[in-house]
Amino acid sequence: MVAPLEGSGVDRRSDSVDAGIRRAPEAVRAEHDSARAANGAVVPTAAPESATPATTRPPATAGAAESEVHDPRAIGDDVLPDADPITRVFGIRHHGPGSARSLRLALESFRPDTILIEGPADADNLVQYIADEGMEPPVALLGYLPDQPARAAFWPYAVFSPEWQALRYAAEHEVPVRFCDLPASAALATGSEPGDRVDPLARLAYAAGYDDAERWWDAVVESNTDTDIFDPLTEAMAALREEPEALDDHTLRREAYMRQTMRKALKAGARRLAVVCGAWHAPALAGPLGPAAPDARLLKGLPKVKTALTWVPWTHSRLAAASGYGAGVDSPGWYHHLFTAGEQPIARWLTKVAGVLRAHDLPVSSAHVIESVRLAETLATLRQRPLAGLSEVTEAVRSVMCGGDETMVRVVTTKLVVGEALGTVPEHAPTVPLAADLRARVRRLRMKTEPTARTVDLDLRKERERERSHLLHRLRLLGIDWGTPTESETGNTGTFRETWTLRWRPEFAVSIIEASRWGTTLRTAAEAKILDVADRDDRTLAEVSAALEQALLADLGDATPGLIARLASVAALDHDITHLLAALPALVRTLRYGDVRGTDTAALTHVADGMLVRICAGLPGAVTGLDAEAAAQLRGQIDAAHLAIHTLDDTRATAAWLDALHRLANRPDVHGALVGRAVRLLCDAGLIEDAESARRLAAALSVGATAAAKAAWVDGFLGGRGLLLVHDRDLLRLIDSWLAALDDDQFLETLPALRRTFGAFESGERRAIGRAVQDAAPTAEQTALDIERGRVAMRTVAEILGVPV
Description:
By secondary structure, this protein is α/β, with parallel strands linked by helices. The protein is built from 34 helices and ten strands.
């Protein structure tokens, strides 16, 4: 995955002309030695005074430097007809609210007639959507290979991103604007992403007494709205770029492309050109551009691939560094607040924090807010900072509002510091047909694509909610897990209700593009994919059965006949009882859901009946010669099949299944875990009396079998049913006596199996069993009645009921 936007406050992936060229390969270094001289970069030996451009600062170090002779008459006014073109380079911090404010003020003052912005040059045709009412940041440019959508890159923008503010300025003032970085076709072709290196800002932060570059930037730069910040920042970057390992080849090519784009803009008639780029690039773009030949040679032979670009919604959480597709902003919610709050940002922020904490039942009053503001400002003063930053505010919240509770501090971080804002893009923006179909269906079904997790209950008896279920299941078939099935909080287990947890993620945009190869609508794409998956030769019976169930849940009627035919053919050729058992539960669920969803399941019933007949006939003979692992796997399949068959409510099917279990339970050569489980299931079904089950347990624990075999029988019989031992004291005494009779070696041999058995019980069940053993479970002969105490209790009950004694 190429991630074109830098992950830190300064772009360290760019390619610029610099002294770092000493470490570049010979071919690249030779080109850039000439480029530095031609472009007027600072060189070790002083140039003759007559050769120095007419400017008061070195052209290679001026952050808002003029690329041609500076004409003071032009600043803030229209350029005179005979004046030279003026180029100003604004080095910004990506996603920095202070940089965004300063840039907006600088653009208002400079009033450019052309703006170039760092970004993929082949996305120029998407700039037109910036002014659309449906465009709401955070959004991202998505570039991908049409034939390999997984190879994609994102260029995210938030409202506090300087690039976004430049785009908005251009739209509001009708100024031509273009992107000037390497096109996505080149970025995706090379996939270049240099490895980790030392953050150049860290040295500036260390010199200023900060141990964290981000805190230094926030305190010194982000709190500054002065337009003059660009000049000293560019000078600092120029000094850092002199480090031997500061630059890499990819950065040098990017900056060469930026200069070429600047030349084209000036040649096209730009008189007041503004260039907005990462601060790291500014020294390479400021000053005279010089001849284009060195840059052209550097870009010659640059590989390219066919790409497509579009706008996609983004979220604040994806801007965060820990989110995978992030852009290196640890606190996007905080930055958004700083950019939009206006006056008194600290007080307004802490008011929001108080609201979040109150929503979590914390008693936060106005006094807490006032005291938190005072503490944050005091901390900033003690630390000699111009205003309180996020660290001071967080410490104030932790101490005053949360009382030192880190859990609530993390809640504030998630809800506010990072935030979950989700942007929107215009409906008529370029997209694949599948995405358009999804957008239309979401709008028609009145669903919301929200970045926060939300649980919804769907009543499948209602048409709209049934269609919502179909939509979510189709998306899951296509690998787009917008919704995840969850257990209902109200405990609904019927087939007419589903519970989903919905959460939209920005990367679904790539998944939708990948899924578009299957079809242009959700229905056709899901049908094509599931049929393709089921038709593969390596598909097992369980997988085909699961695919059929998914198709039914997604209402893929056109795919159902083909899947049923495929299931019948695979089932006819599969003689493995374990495969049939594994496929049966999904098949039974499909039959059940078919009744609710109005699906014709006659053909499927025929297949299920045939499978059940073969299972019942072959099960007793398929359970011999199994080791412990195979027996445990088969036991799980028997449990699932038992539950599925009972949900069918088919008397004949249930009788055939129980008969098969009875034959299994009577086999002496079967693993104890399977026999114990069969006895338990038959006892639950009422075919074996409690006394008979106790007799079988006693026989299994008698002399002859190994201790491990006895433990396996107990595990199969009791597994998941701890209440049996609580209520059946005879059974408890039987197992207790067996355990007490084990010698040390036998006990150690059975301990793992018994620990697994009792560990599966609920904690309350284990405590009840312990109390029963401790109390020695009194028998009926030991029970005595206290007549006098009973009379007192009876009188009290009679008074409550109003019955005369």
